Amino acid sequence: MGAPVVAPFDLNDFTVIKEGEAEILMHVKNEVFYNKTQVNNRDMSIAVLRTFISRRKEEHEAMLSRKKKTGPKDSGEPIVEPEALTDNVMHDEKSNGECEVSQEISRDEPGSISEDLAAKQEGKGKGELKPPRVLEALSASGLRAIRYAREVDGIGQVVALDNDKVSVESCRRNIKFNGSVACSKVESNLADARVYMLTHPKEFDVVDLDPYGSPSVFLDSAVQSVVDGGILMCTATDMAVLCGGNGEIWVLSVERKILPRDGIEDPSCVSASAMKNTPLKLSYVYQCTGCDSFHLQPIGRTVSKNTSVRYLPGFGPVVAQECIDCGKKYNMGGPIWSAPIHDLEWVTSILADVKSMKDRYPAFGRISAVLTTISEELPDVPLFLSLHNLCATLKCTSPSAVIFRSAVINAGYRISGSHVNPLGLKTDAPMHVIWDIMRCWVKNHPVKAQPPDQAGSVILAKEPDLQANFARAVASLSKAQAKKVARFLPNPERYWGPKVRAGRQITSKHVSLLGAEAINGMHNHDQNEEEPPSLLGAAEAINGMHNHDESEEEPSSKRKKTEESTSNL
């Protein structure tokens, strides 16, 4: 490929930033967007990409082995087994000011890359699997693309796009600065990502979306550009911008973009079962306006008879007009994705790979914590409860997470944490059981009388049908918790979080993002013509540390802390 053509420049005008095995040159001005916080995203993408390449190679070799045993068909074509369209969503992290939602969608059997793709490439290359081509659709400085080229073994060409001339110049400069490996693998182009992906259909094994803002507007074109059996990686620095704080809505959006893709060219390319299965993965949500209890209404259902399966609309409604717990009305929302959003086999494989080469991940602590938490949460429970919100409804002190989990387990139900929120709890216990447990808790920890029309008063006025057992259960702590493995880490620096968009003038209105010290430093730089201080990030971390899991009971004064005041659960 050769080194890119780069205009002469003076190294004294730049600061060298090192991340992983890559080094980039950043101008002292805010010309090209760079956010140190996103090292978490880039590390996670590299970990997923390594696993994808490894799985892809293993399945290609398995396909060749099966072909040798079974032999080709009369037509001379390799034998390819039928494939189903499913979704493998790898991770979604929400942590203080740096929410990460990164979802990888594989168009194949769960945990499988594409045997069909391997067969096609085997036919062209006489059994040789070509290195995967990667598209980084919104590259800015090119840091991610360069890290892919330098750190991921077995990777092929990496195409880095941006529609900003200054960013493309920066990317090309950084490619050259990183030497022969980057120059031979990374190509930087000035292009609109949506147009480029639409005009390069099914050309890339990996398409990576990490824009400044929501990736939603790029989905239609991105799914056109990724090959069958490829992987689509999407990152959003703020989940609320992406889907209102609910990852399940985002997964539904991806599903809707992927399913019609091949149907545009040939409707027979999408299997009927894949289309029929989609309603089974979706649900409407009813949430009480008084006590926040929620209930899912599946859109579809199946009826099996002998070997046949019928797909029918879901039964409903699942709730009455008024909440059975507090008597208030319901809000209705959705549909959301109510099927599992993680492929636990993939998550386990990625986590093992990350641990085996921890020195190669600058954000090892954070990404291993996220993957560990995901690996331990209930995969078939889409939404989570907040223990503090339950207590706020009843105006009571909060039991420790261990005590509450024990009561749920002793009642015969499952419970786990949530990777989205340190205080979140996923359980298959119905809401009336949850409120019975809280009624029993309040009997032992009385509360002040509240107005009788309040939701909490109505709930507590009823006698519990279940007598909760708060004796500590063996499974009340996960394996990671029992071993005191960190699962939610505090921010490593002050002002760790979002950054100001590239090219935007930094003024006093950005104090909430950059901090007063950084703003004052910028003003002093304007007056003294000295180098400005480094901008460390956004809002200061609000991780209030209290070992909630290990404590037997939380004082009422601590109950008033917000959910953002989290602990190392």
Automatic annotation (TrEMBL):
Keywords: Methyltransferase, RNA-binding, S-adenosyl-L-methionine, Transferase, tRNA processing, tRNA-binding. InterPro entries: SAM-dependent_MTases_sf, Trm1, tRNA_met_Trm1_C. Residues 555-569 have a biased composition (Basic and acidic residues). The keyword tRNA-binding applies. The keyword Transferase applies. Its EC number is 2.1.1.216. Residues 60-113, 523-569 are annotated as: Disordered. It catalyses: guanosine(26) in tRNA + 2 S-adenosyl-L-methionine = N(2)-dimethylguanosine(26) in tRNA + 2 S-adenosyl-L-homocysteine + 2 H(+). It holds the Pfam family TRM. Belongs to the class I-like SAM-binding methyltransferase superfamily. Trm1 family. This is tRNA (guanine(26)-N(2))-dimethyltransferase. It comes from Rehmannia glutinosa (Chinese foxglove).
